[in-house]
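Reopening this ticket.

The earlier resolution said the output was attached, but the attachment link was broken on my side. Pasting everything inline this time so it's all in one place.
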Amino acid sequence: MHIGHSPLRTLAVSFCVLLLIGTAPVSAASTAVPAVSPETLRQGERIYREGILPSGAALRASIKGGAAVPGLTFACSSCHLRSGLGAFDEGVYTPAINGAKLFHPLLRRYKGADLSADKVKPLRPAYTEESLIQALRTGNAPDGRVLKDGMPRYPLTDSDARILVAYLKELSSRLSPGVGPTSLRFATVVSEDVPPEKSTAMFAAFDNIFTMQNNRTKSSSDPRSRQMAQNMLGRDLESRTLSLSRWILTGPPETWRRQLEEYNRKEPVFALLGGMVSGQWRPVHQFCEEFEIPCLFPVTDFPVISETDWYTLYLSKGYYQEGESAARYLNSNSAQLMGRPVVQIVRSSPQGGALSEGFLKTWQELGEQAPVTVFLPPGKMLDRESLRRLLAKEQPAALLIWDDAAAPPVLESVSSRDGRPDLVFFSARYLGESFWTLPESIRDSTYLTYPYAFSFPAVRTGMGVNKVQDDRSQTLRRADLPFKNELQETVSLTNALTQLLSNLLQELKDNYYRDNLLDVAGMMADQQYPLYGRISFGTALRYAVRGCFVVQLGHGATPELVKKSGWVIQ
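Inline output:
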């Protein structure tokens, strides 16, 4: 469930200031966790994450003695997040309720003091199973205090209460795989058929950043420099060596799953970073979902489109997102359609399929009639006569051609007398560099989906620092694009990812749980990022870039891209 940074989110968080579980560090290894059946954990997880009881009924809760009401707003994860580590959001503190914190005393901590439990009265004693059930039902803490009125009271049966408590005991109770006493392991995934210059550039950028990170304090003899690094990174992170393995996938995609499992068996990792494969990312995505391994920003134009999957955080929806944007733009200008059909010509390719699927699904969700779709099988080129016959038959108000650079000259060969509409769409990314040379005669009626920014942050690429453009810019010249080749783009994206990772690790506060990594990512503020200018995060959002421009190409030998829409948000 996604609540995001909305009034509802603020209200929900204020309802869930649960149990006053503070941030006193406790060793996860010291938590004794008895064996619990997988089915009990599954049921407890569903209560915690979805607010659904084992019976299938909705979890009910009451506030300030009011009537019990069902609703996902009162699911524990709405406030305490998936990891149970809680958050500080919009001025509201939500404490941790994971197994490593919940069943230990909350000790007073003073700066510079080393105080033990036998010398200082704890802020609250450790919860037991019985006292936790009592707090959940009545809001009474084990030391006799009454928890705040905003704390929901849950009328749980004994069976349901013990199932939830059993899950809380397990929740983030042990550090995740890939986390050692002095190490933190990551991996990146690359298929063998990725052009070697691209994979080499990505590996080199990762190696450079990881080496710098590991040497930042360990090679320093200056105590002040070492202390500064500890303050920036956190003492625990400063003492850990970060490593990055290369998981190279060979052979056809149907064999990748077995290879990924073998890599993970030999050397489990905390998360996957970046990565690139030729074709669909789906095999890696499904592996990450099943083995619960976070994957941050793989470089792919073909992500898995899902509203429920959790473990992969993508930069965008790729080509699918451009199809979505074309649908929303046309829908906002539906008066121009005048009841006439929309026609899609779709190349039978991964790019064409993703563009078409994004358009079709969004178009129908907007209540529009399904478009007429014509597929171009592999090897068949769009030709003038076929296009003329299609236009004469359908007389479309809008034509979407999800094809490569061979298509625009064919469009030029037909005229308005042949039925060529005034609304024709292409994907700028699918056309590639050729979109800068669209025939002059079709530019006024041709629209391009353009998923990148018109302004770019000053990002270090390893080959210099890119200029910053004005955010209000309505046009973009070819010469102002930040990257002149794919290698430069790869290095810049990798550097930006490692900077993001550094920020995330600092915010983990030594709580190295995979779900916590993604929880923390969901709470981050907007970030400046190459290509896209800015990326945004939110609880349970899996696509950091959710927009696209619709543009046209100006006239002349050195044309500009001209915005015809704002950032069309999905």
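Reporter confirms the inline version is readable. Residues 7-170 form a domain with the Cytochrome Bc1 Complex; Chain D, domain 2 fold (CATH 1.10.760.10). Residues 290 and 311 are 9 Å apart (CA to CA).
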